[in-house]
Specification:
heterodimer; A: six-stranded mixed barrel; B: 281 residues; alpha/beta
Chain lengths: 612, 281
């Protein structure tokens, strides 16, 4: 009984013990915060990587690819059909992209990925990464920000899916998929997170009444949005007028989205030869067979590409806004850079290429030796996954175009070669089984079969290593707290030597004395880690508010969303980690009190009583 | 703890748990030894000495040097006797008290309590014995500074009982403690901390603490050493009345002859040996 009483009494009266409680508390809180943020980043990153790659990727080692994709996919279905939900064939190849920006030619190395957007969209969330979707344009929404909370609908395109869903201009979007929306930026991040959804649930305020609406998630396609078509139409018209005006004089290139004023030293337009460089980011497209009434994506691409393969003279377009047969989704990192406004100090994002403009793509042909191949493609959409490694490297292209350009279509049979097949599983937990089966079925010297985790192994391993090292370093903080407890306890034992003697004279046993100090250590550990857990969880919960506060205090951004692509700091609290940290801290506190407790227990009563 | 023979159940002041009963049985066994030892001539009617030491030697080792403190002390303390041990500083009187109270182990010799040897018991048993059979009073009071007077007084019982037993009988314990505190004249200071008490009050509190466990022997080490003479006399009167009214066996160590003469018998120690034994006036 006295043990408990003394423990509590010492805890209440020894203020020095507060120091060890605080050190344990800070250690625990720091570990929880760091672990939660690291886990949040890692989870977010994995989601983003997973969003671009599929569950399982079957790749050929050669860039020439597997000549019979359809056959291969059938084999995959035979081997692991029960597990497979969807599949898509892709062509991955290195390339270069070049475009004009303010009179200069900018060339970037890229990874070209030929995809079929419909099947690719079934395998991994493609549309949620596209700027036309997150900005609402693909659904026909024109959004605007104002001072009032909620995202204002400035306009709705007649005939668009938003129009069909019943959204009117002047409505205010307040909720998206159950999460509150403050402005367009927030709506964009909510839309970006609507992965695996068939519909977007919106709450709309119209005339003080709230309506719930469902907007279907569009499937990714190679069609231009109305806005991009408009942009393209203006560019084509400008170009045509300039040509008309200046003939037979020289022509000014249209400088992408920012046309430069005409200067006398200009090269003549070279519109008729696709292998040549386009004058602006636009070439009038070559003849397109079918009538423009048929949407471009439904046309036979072979027939589209046929005239493209043999360069012809300039042809009048049925609709000048029609895109070229080669179309791409371009990674945002390739065409964006931040500019700081010299006057206001605000950072805005400058886009060098807009949807609807044309870029030049260079790649290599299949076969030996690989030869350079060029084609001009229309940028249909800008792609932003949030993984800078992907956003500044990837260009998605229509697979038919890439196969055609690289000579991957067998002229005799019409078989199309692909370099990889991406597989989505019904349940990712089966990945190991499927990989094992596929590896058995496909010879290893021709194919590599990997899950997305294995494909991104080094990156994920690096993050895990980082977390591990951080944890070790942070645990040292708690260990330091442990030594603090040891020192403080030793001091308390010395200070309490006489009292220990008294207790022994009154008949307290060695174990009893020991358990006083062990219990004291346990109490310190429990209180310290308990408060630490609360503090850490509170910090994690309000981390974005705290970040804003620190930003305000320092006058400098702590967490720059333009660098990290995250609208806010991602966190993920794992109860297991929290439990382990708390238990570890209590353990260290008890361990640190063993030595002083032993010393107290082995004091000889006579010695202790004489101690003054 | 062994039970050499079944003993009649004592009537304890407070209900006790099973292990407590076993201890009581053993304590009773000590109280009723098999064969009576030598009688004491100066106190007729008592058979077994309450406390007895035989050829007690105690030496401390200081590096190579061995310093003898007690060099063969034989002493008997009868039930209900009030004994003073006097001597100069360094004569070994405090050490003798510590050895008798099992706070220290003798180098050579034996200590008997009610006819049973107690110095060779296991540590755990000695702890229990100290708690149940001995009450200590020290020169510098040795109260626990974190506890109030009441908590200090009940601390021997807090050590004796498990948390559960304590909780079940907290009211009885409190009443008993208040009664004893009243007896030593501190009824008005129950909630005070030791730092808020005077020296005399602290020593009274220490006596109350020594009494609450209903010990067989009260061991007092210079109980008046830190007090002025009038307060010292008050404390001595308290001890004398306890001895007289409750037949409490007291052994007191002091260097003050005037204090020592309040006892029945005075033992004079010199250089670790008993020099003279004299009856008090």
């Amino acid at each position: 009984m006295y043990k408990l009483q003394l423990c509590l009494r010492y805890l209440r009266t020894r203020w020095i013990a507060m120091a060890s409680i605080i050190s344990v508390m800070l250690g625990v809180a720091t570990m929880i915060v760091v672990n939660s943020v690291m886990a949040g980043f890692a989870t977010e990153m994995r989601e983003r990587i997973h969003g671009i790659l599929a569950d399982i990727v079957v790749e050929t080692h050669t860039l020439d690819g597997d000549p019979d994709a359809a056959r291969r996919m059938q084999e995959i279905m035979e081997v692991a059909g029960d597990y497979v939900e969807a599949m898509t064939a892709t062509v991955e190849v290195y390339g270069m992209i070049s475009f004009k920006y303010r009179g200069q030619v900018i060339t970037r190395p890229v990874t070209l990925i030929g995809i079929d957007p419909k099947t690719k969209g079934e395998v991994s969330p493609l549309v949620t990464n596209l700027a036309s979707f997150t900005s609402g344009r693909r659904m026909g929404l024109a959004l605007a920000d104002d001072a009032v909370a909620g995202c204002l609908v400035a306009g709705v395109l007649p005939g668009s899916s938003a129009h069909t869903a019943g959204i009117h201009a002047g409505d205010r979007i307040t909720l998206c998929n159950g999460s509150p929306v403050e402005d367009t930026k927030e709506l964009a991040s909510r839309l970006k997170n609507s992965i695996d959804r068939k519909t977007i649930e919106l709450a709309i305020v119209r005339d003080q009444t709230t309506l719930a609406l469902n907007l279907p998630v569009p499937s990714p396609s190679w069609t231009l949005t109305t806005e991009a078509r408009g942009h393209r139409r203006i560019l084509v018209e400008l170009e045509r007028r300039r040509l008309e005006w200046n003939q037979p004089q020289q022509v000014v290139p249209a400088g992408g989205s920012q046309p430069l004023p005409p200067t006398p030293e200009q090269t003549p337009p070279n519109l008729d030869v696709p292998p040549g460089f386009p004058p602006g980011n636009l070439v009038p497209p070559p003849e397109i067979g079918p009538s423009p009434a048929v949407p471009p994506s439904t046309r036979s691409l072979d027939s589209l590409l046929a005239p493209y393969a043999e360069p012809a003279g300039p042809i009048e377009l049925a609709d000048p806004a029609d895109p070229l047969p080669a179309r791409i989704f371009i990674g945002a990192g390739l065409i964006e850079f931040p500019i700081e406004d010299k006057e206001t100090g605000e950072i805005r994002i400058e886009r060098m290429v807009l949807a609807g403009e044309d870029v030049r793509i260079t790649t290599v042909s299949a076969g030996r030796p690989p030869e350079p191949r060029h084609f001009t493609a229309t940028v249909v959409d800008v792609f932003k996954s949030g993984m800078s490694e992907y956003d500044s490297n990837l260009v998605f292209c229509n697979i038919e175009q890439l196969q055609q350009t690289r000579g991957m279509i067998d002229p005799s049979t019409g078989d199309r070669a692909v370099t990889s097949i991406q597989v989505k599983l019904k349940n990712f937990e089966d990945a190991d089984v499927v990989v094992k089966r596929l590896r058995a079925a496909f010879p290893a010297h021709i194919y590599s079969v990997r899950t997305w985790q294995q494909k991104q192994g080094p990156l994920l391993a690096a993050v895990e290593l980082e977390t591990g090292i951080l944890n070790i370093l942070l645990f040292l903080i708690i260990a330091v707290a442990g030594f603090g407890i040891l020192a403080i306890f030793y001091m308390i034992v010395v200070e309490k030597t006489r009292d220990i003697g008294i207790l022994k004279a009154l008949g307290a046993s060695r174990q009893g004395i020991m358990s006083i100090f062990l219990g004291y250590g346990l109490a310190l550990g429990v209180v310290g880690s308990g408060v630490g857990v609360l503090l850490g969880l509170t910090f994690v919960y309000y981390i974005n508010e705290i970040e804003k506060g620190i930003t305000w205090l320092l006058g400098r951004k702590v967490f720059d969303e333009t660098i990290y692509y995250f609208p806010e700091i991602p966190t993920a609290v794992s109860p297991l980690t929290v439990g382990c940290v708390a238990l570890g801290a209590v353990g260290i506190a008890v361990l640190a009190s063993i030595l002083p407790a032993r010393r107290a227990a082995t004091l000889r009563p006579v010695q202790a009583l004489r101690y003054e | 703890m062994s039970t050499p023979q079944p003993a009649p159940q004592q009537t304890p002041p407070i209900p006790q748990d099973v292990s407590q009963q076993a201890r009581d049985a053993w304590a009773t066994a000590i109280a009723s030894p098999a064969a009576p030892k030598a009688t004491l001539d100066h106190l007729p009617g008592t058979s077994t000495p309450r406390l007895r030491c035989i050829a007690l030697e105690k030496s401390y080792r200081k590096g190579e040097l061995i310093i003898p403190v007690l060099r063969g002390v034989d002493l008997e303390l009868a039930q209900g006797e009030f004994l003073s041990v006097v001597g100069q500083s360094g004569s070994g009187k405090s050490t003798l008290l510590h050895v008798l109270g099992l706070l220290d182990a003798p180098s050579v010799g034996e200590v008997h309590c009610d006819g049973r040897r107690i110095d060779n018991l296991k540590e755990r048993q000695r702890d229990t014995l100290r708690n149940r059979n001995f009450g200590f009073i020290f020169q510098s009071y040795h109260l626990l500074p974190e506890f109030t007077l009441l908590e200090n007084v009940v601390s021997p019982l807090a050590i004796r009982y498990s948390t559960l037993t304590w909780w079940r009988h907290r009211k009885a314990i409190r009443e008993q403690a208040l009664e004893i505190i009243d007896k030593v004249g501190l009824g008005h200071r129950v909630k005070h901390r030791p730092s808020e008490l005077s020296g005399g009050e602290m020593q009274r509190a220490a006596i109350a603490r020594a009494l609450i466990g209903q010990p067989r022997v009260l061991l007092a080490d210079e109980p008046t050493g830190n007090l002025d003479s009038s307060t010292g006399q008050e404390i001595m009167s308290l001890l004398a009345s306890l001895n007289e009214l409750q037949q409490l066996t007291i052994i007191m160590v002091t260097h003050d002859e005037r204090i020592a003469c309040r006892a029945h018998r005075i033992v004079r120690l010199d250089e670790g040996r008993v020099e003279t034994v004299s009856q008090a006036a």
